[in-house]
Each structure stands twice: as structure tokens, then as C-alpha cells.
């Protein structure tokens, strides 16, 4: 755990969140500022700043996060159309430096993304 990290605090139960999934490796909760009718964040419990910091040994964990994304999209009723986003680095829009997958659904999305 990183003491200053807001997502570590959510994972530790120190900050409240609307949690929709929990297991030994991951946690998912609703984004506080949703950009779509359904907007979930999926995080590893272990503090990892960015996707770029992941290592080959994190392969199982990264796959697990995507697998949870698929399950939650079904659970939320948006499995026919949703977007999974990872912003890596400030220039890509990352504002919380604890790896997270955004799962967005419930509306149509443009391409290319902004
Ligand atoms: P990023 O910009 O790093 O890709 O995404 C960070 C996301 O975390 C943003 O969509 C933001 O709304 C969300 N967020 C930031 N602080 C909190 C918080 O305390 N609780 C929840 N549920 N979401 C947060
Ligand atoms: Zn963290």
C-alpha cells in the first residue's frame, strides 16, 4: 500500500466507495464522476502506479482485471456495448496513479477517443 494513494485507501476501506466487486486480487467501484451511465473502476489491490510499470510476472493479474471487466459489464447489463480504458501517464489523462481500468457503458462512444 502507498500511504498517499487514494485507491489504496479505498482498497483498505479507509475511504468509502460504492464497491461492486471484491476478490483477493482486485476491487471494483463506481467512479465518483461518471462519464457514462455506467462507469466502473477496477483496480488491483496491490499498488502499481501505471500499466507501464507492470512486469511479465503481472500477466495473470492483468488478465484477471480484464476478466472482471467482462463480468461486471454483464452484471451492469451493458455487455453488448462498453468501453474499457486504461489511461497511462498524465499526457494520456491519468490523474490517479494507481493502475485502474475504466469500464464505461450505457451510451454510444465516438472513435477516435479524444
Ligand atoms: P484517470 O484520470 O486516472 O484515468 O481516472 C481516475 C478516475 O478516478 C477519474 O475518473 C475520477 O473521477 C475517479 N476518482 C478520483 N477520485 C475518486 C474517489 O475518491 N472515488 C471514486 N469512486 N472515484 C474517484
Ligand atoms: Zn495505490
Mean pLDDT: 97
The description of the largest β-sheet is: 5 strands, antiparallel
The helix content, as a percent range, equals 10-25%
User: What structural class do helix, strand and pairing data support?
Assistant: alpha+beta
Q: How far apart are the first and last residues' alpha carbons, in Å?
A: 32 Å
Order of helices and strands: HEEEHEE
**Treating each run of at least 4 consecutive H or I residues as one helix, how many helices?**
2
Ligand names: guanosine-5'-monophosphate, zinc ion
Strand-residue fraction? 15-25%
Instruction: Detail the poorly predicted runs.
Output: none
Taking all Cα atoms into account, the compactness measure Rg is 14 Å
How does the overall form come out from the CA principal axes?
globular
Strand order of the largest sheet: 1-2-3-5-4
Number of strands: 5
Give a written overview of the molecule.
- The protein is of the alpha+beta class.
- Helices cover 20% and strands 22% of the residues.
- The protein has helices at 6-11, 59-75; strands spanning 19-22, 26-30, 38-44, 82-85, 101-105.
- The protein has a five-stranded antiparallel β-sheet, covered by helices on one side.
- A hairpin with a 3-residue loop joins strand 1 and strand 2.
- The site of zinc ion (ZN) has 6 residues, from helix 1.
- Residues 2, 5, 7-8, 47, 98 line the site of zinc ion (ZN).
Amino acid at each position: 500500500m502507498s500511504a498517499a494513494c487514494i485507491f489504496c485507501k479505498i482498497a483498505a476501506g479507509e475511504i468509502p466507495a460504492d464497491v461492486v466487486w471484491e476478490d483477493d486480487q482486485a476491487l471494483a467501484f463506481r467512479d465518483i464522476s461518471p462519464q457514462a451511465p455506467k462507469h466502473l473502476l477496477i483496480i488491483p489491490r496491490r499498488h502499481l502506479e501505471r500499466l507501464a510499470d507492470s512486469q511479465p510476472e503481472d500477466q495473470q493479474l492483468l488478465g484477471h482485471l480484464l476478466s472482471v471487466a467482462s463480468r461486471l459489464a454483464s452484471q451492469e447489463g451493458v455487455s453488448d456495448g462498453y468501453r474499457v480504458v486504461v489511461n497511462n501517464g498524465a499526457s494520456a489523462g491519468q490523474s490517479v496513479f494507481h493502475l485502474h481500468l475504466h469500464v464505461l457503458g450505457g451510451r454510444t462512444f465516438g472513435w477516435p477517443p479524444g
